[in-house]
Amino acid sequence: MDRVILDWPNLGFHVRETDINVRCHYQGGEWGPLEFSDNHNLTIPMAATALHYGQSIFEGLKAFETVDGRVAIFRPDENAARMQYGARKLLMEAPPTSLFLEAVSELVRQNRRFVPPAGSGAALYLRPLLFGTSPLLGVRPAKEFTFCMFATPVGPYFRSVLSPIRLRVERESHRAAPLGIGDVKAAGNYAASMRSVGAAKHAGFDNVLYLDARESRYIDETGATNFFGIQSGDQHRYITPRSNSILASITNKSLMTIADDLGYLVEHRPIAVDELSSFDEAGACGTAAVITPIQEIVDSSGTYGYVAPGPVTRKLYDRLTGIQAGVMEDTHGWVHYVD
Ligand SMILES: Cc1ncc(COP(=O)(O)O)c(C=O)c1O
Known about the structure:
Layout: E1 21-27, E2 30-31, E3 35-37, H1 49-53, E4 56-58, E5 61-65, E6 71-74, H2 76-89, H3 97-110, E7 123-132, E8 145-154, E9 165-169, H4 187-202, E10 207-211, E11 219-222, E12 226-231, E13 237-240, H5 250-261, E14 265-268, E15 281-286, E16 290-299, E17 302-305, H6 311-324, E18 335-337
Parallel strand pairs: 9-10, 9-16, 13-14
Antiparallel strand pairs: 1-2, 1-3, 1-8, 4-7, 5-6, 5-7, 6-18, 7-8, 10-11, 12-13, 12-15, 15-16, 16-17
Helix pairs in contact: 2-3
């Protein structure tokens, strides 16, 4: 394998074309074969339900080169399950887990030369998409769907590894409604967040912290990550919001397990904004952001500062990335090897 030459430590989070992508069509009540292609475009009907009625969901996962030169994918079965959950909510047909995993593994194999070197802090990001392609005029679910996936090498989502960020509590809009589709990785949720995230960035922040849409009282999540707070003491506490309008982050789920393994108390419950003053550390977590320490949260109620990165955040980061890189024991069976 002749790896491509890229500036691995400074990749940023952008699309870079790789050799091959994969697509698969659901028609006549069944999934066709996986089609691998070097064409980076798709042709779909102009009247596809994805385009006007937003029948479109996606996923994000990463492949890492391990220290012994293998390629590890982190919990891809969870992404398959989350896509199936989202598809059920939006009346779509999702690829079965076996098809999803085959597409992931084969896509990584065929783009092996784009997998960043072990220890570079970069990864091969995989972006699966699922959308309705039936041409329909009335608001009805499609009968045909496309599942496709591309791969692109990426660095950290925010600046650099463990570099702290500043957030603004969003008081002028909400991301998603309770009993809505905030718990689905639906394309429209991200369109809905662009204005507030853009305004916050314009004002010098890295992202926003959304509040619940019913009372604007509880913390939901940022535009692209879950949130957690740490209380240090005799026994450390990992505290993360429970809400039906946030995405069930696979990173956060893993961190709750790791925190428990490390002997911390894990609290998965509604977190009122007033509690921001009770945390010693705070973080944003997700596949793209990994664990990004939060140094400051600015709200109309006050400004809250945190040690960033604090010792607990660092420990969680080391354990999570150690498992992903194959240098720490994968006691929970999270890593899926491509070969
Ligand atoms: C809104 C939102 N929340 C949370 C996450 C983190 O989820 P995960 O850890 O599964 O990547 C993401 C990214 O996927 C996201 O877009």
